[in-house]
What we know:
Strand content: 15-25%
CATH topology: TIM Barrel
Structural class: alpha/beta
Radius of gyration: 16 Å
Strand order of the largest sheet: 1-2-3-4-5-6-7-8
Order of helices and strands: EHEHEHEHEHEEHEEEH
CATH architecture: Alpha-Beta Barrel
Amino acid sequence: MSVVRSKICGITRIEDALAAIAAGADAIGLVFYPKSPRAVNIAQAQAILAALPPFVTTVGLFVNMPREQLNALLAQVPLDLLQFHGDETAADCAGYNRPFIKALRIKSDDDVAAMIGEYPAASGILLDTFVPGIPGGTGEAFDWSLVPKGLDTPIILAGGLTPENIASAIAQVQPYAVDVSGGVEASKGIKDAAKVRAFVAAVRAC
């Protein structure tokens, strides 16, 4: 089985970003969705990115942000990868000169393979839990058996992951990567360094 990558999302502080990297996380996520308790502004994002060592993938999370506004943000924040969590079409996600991943919120009756097929240019697809009115960060897991096997697209598993359940999640889904936010927090937007270390260690042990 190949190495599973890990991303710590909802980073709001430099010390949390550095703790995630020290623990061995491959990527950190910054939320640019004002309604989220984990949202950062441009100045916060710039300070976090400036403090990072090399070889860390920086991901920006967006929810239906207008193209002009997103382009203006990218001119100021040098993100590596874009993560779209809203109602964006494949065309909406393209054209930023950066790779992107599309988040899909999964319900029990969804045809997950067909949903993934709508985004052929995506570098990966993030599968999260459907909760009405909440685009992500719900802290709730979905039925992992809904994830099809043998997909060509890299799958990033999210939604309700914790240090305690991540090994079973990886064993069942066999994703390319996993993405955690609330499961390693002391409070919303504030990471618990011990939980981050435990999570990444559990991922690496799989």
